[in-house]
Predict the structure.
Amino acid sequence: MNVLFFADVVGRPGRELLVAKLPGLRERFEADVVVANGENVTDGKGLKPSHAEALLRAGVDVITTGNHVWRQRDIYRYLSDEPRVLRPYNFLESNPGRGVTVVDTHSGRLGVVNLLGDLYLYPARSPFEVVDRALEELQGVRNVIVDLHAEATSEKVAMGWHLDGRVSAVIGTHTHVRTADARVLPRGTAYITDAGMCGSRDSVIGVKKELVLERFLSQLPVRFEVATDDVWLEGVVVEIGSDGHARSIEPFEVGAMS
Ligand SMILES: [Fe+2]
Ligand SMILES: [Fe+2]
């Protein structure tokens, strides 16, 4: 099974390029299933149901999210009704939605877990405390990927080792900067600390760079806007063998012109 994973999709530029390129990329990477992190899809903050629907219609099978998931209020009800769109598992159990799902593909089932890191992101519970319970919900599902949406590299690396041999892949998101450490760990779990971003590179992690600089230089509040130029799609392709272990993990980047 080949899993095509897109890192944080930022605003209209990221969304539109993903929708335009997805059919070709599905073919090029022989993808059986497509997962995208959608926490920044709507104006850089959160995910409106209409935008989630647009991505699902374009061929995304599962959308994960992260710390920005609650920014669009109308997502609350939608998360409760739509099992293909996840919020981090380790928020309060009473919060809308779910953090685990299973998708059927012609190559078998894929379980997806969405977790939020502790540092700066304030989940209700530690991802390390709850991950076993999340995996119990996926008993009998051999292929499982985990999107650990987290700030700290150490937290993500540690989770990779914690889950090595127990899931097919641990893929980090949130920093919007791709790391150079993609590899298959010794017991068969594909790992990368951060898969990158689908958005503008003429930016500071997706936001217009002039505005971010103004904030850093003035130390005063500045309203952020999503940057629009030099848009790229970044992510990873994970090949999973019939035993549920990863065979390979390959980062990719695709520009508007490529
Ligand atoms: Fe993000
Ligand atoms: Fe985030």
